[in-house]
C-alpha cells in the first residue's frame, strides 16, 4: 500500500482527525480533489509544495500521511499541465523515475477517510520551492508586475524592485 503526504493548514488538523481529508473544490476545475505527493526517501521531494502553499498566508502547515490501495485511481502530472490517469501504485513509480520529481502532484478525486491516516506531523516550514520548481536553479527572479503579484502576500519588496528596474530603463 503506497503512502502519500497531504499538506494542510494546521488549523484544519482537528477536523481531519475527526473525519477525513476532505476533497475540496479547486479553482478552474469542475470536480473536487485532494492533492498529495508520495512518501519517498527524498524528504524534499515529498514536501516540495510546502513553501509554495505558505505563500497563501498560512502560518503553519502540517503533513498528513495516509495509505491507499495500490489500485486506487489517481491523476498524476506536473501542475498546470496535462495529467495522466493511473493508479496510486503507478504514481509512486512515476515520481521515482522522473528526473527531479519537482512540480509533480498526485490528485485523488475522493476524500481520504480518517482510518487511512497513519501519521500527522509538522514538517520543517522552509522546505520546498516558491513560484516554480526551478526557481532556485535557473537564476531568474519572479515577475514583479502588478498582474503576476495580484493578491500575493509579502510582495512589497518584489514589486519595488520591479518598479525600480522599469525606472532605470
Fold topology:
Elements: E1 3-9, H1 13-18, E2 20-21, E3 24-25, E4 32-38, H2 43-46, H3 50-54, E5 61-67, E6 73-78, E7 84-87, H4 88-97, E8 104-108, E9 112-113, E10 117-121, H5 146-149, H6 156-168
Antiparallel strand pairs: 1-4, 1-5, 2-9, 3-4, 4-8, 5-10, 6-7, 6-8
Characterise the protein shown here.
The chain is an alpha+beta fold and 169 residues long. It has 2 domains: 3-121; 139-169, no CATH class. Helices cover 25% and strands 28% of the residues. It has 6 helices and 10 strands, in the order βαβββααβββαβββαα. The chain has helices spanning 13-18, 43-46, 50-54, 88-97, 146-149, 156-168, and strands at 3-9, 20-21, 24-25, 32-38, 61-67, 73-78, 84-87, 104-108, 112-113, 117-121. The longest helix is centred in the C-terminal third of the chain and has 13 residues, at 156-168. It is globular. The N and C termini lie far apart (57 Å).
Search tags:
globular; 2 domains; 10 strands; single chain; eight-stranded antiparallel β-sheet; 169 residues; alpha+beta
Describe the structure concisely for a colleague:
By secondary structure, this protein is of the alpha+beta class. The protein is 25% helix and 28% strand.
Number of domains: 2
Show unreliable segments: none
Mean of all residue-level pLDDT scores? 85
Number of E-state strands: 10
Structural class: alpha+beta
Roughly how much helix do the residues carry, as a percent range? 10-25%
Terminal Cα span = 57 Å
Amino acid at each position: 500500500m503506497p503512502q502519500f503526504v497531504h499538506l494542510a493548514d494546521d488549523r484544519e488538523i482537528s477536523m481531519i482527525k475527526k473525519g477525513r481529508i476532505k476533497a475540496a473544490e479547486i479553482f478552474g476545475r469542475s470536480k473536487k480533489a485532494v492533492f498529495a505527493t508520495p512518501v519517498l526517501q527524498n524528504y524534499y521531494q515529498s514536501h516540495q509544495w510546502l513553501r509554495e502553499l505558505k505563500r497563501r498566508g498560512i502560518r503553519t502547515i502540517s503533513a498528513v500521511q495516509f495509505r491507499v490501495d495500490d489500485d486506487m485511481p489517481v491523476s498524476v502530472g506536473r501542475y498546470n499541465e496535462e495529467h495522466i490517469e493511473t493508479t496510486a501504485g503507478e504514481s509512486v513509480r512515476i515520481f521515482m523515475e522522473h528526473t527531479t520529481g519537482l512540480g509533480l502532484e498526485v490528485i485523488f478525486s475522493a476524500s481520504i477517510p480518517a482510518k487511512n491516516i497513519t501519521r500527522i506531523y509538522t514538517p520543517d516550514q522552509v522546505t520546498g520551492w516558491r513560484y516554480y520548481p526551478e526557481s532556485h536553479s535557473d537564476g531568474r527572479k519572479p515577475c514583479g508586475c502588478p498582474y503576476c503579484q495580484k493578491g500575493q502576500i509579502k510582495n512589497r519588496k518584489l514589486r519595488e524592485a520591479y518598479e525600480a528596474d522599469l525606472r532605470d530603463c
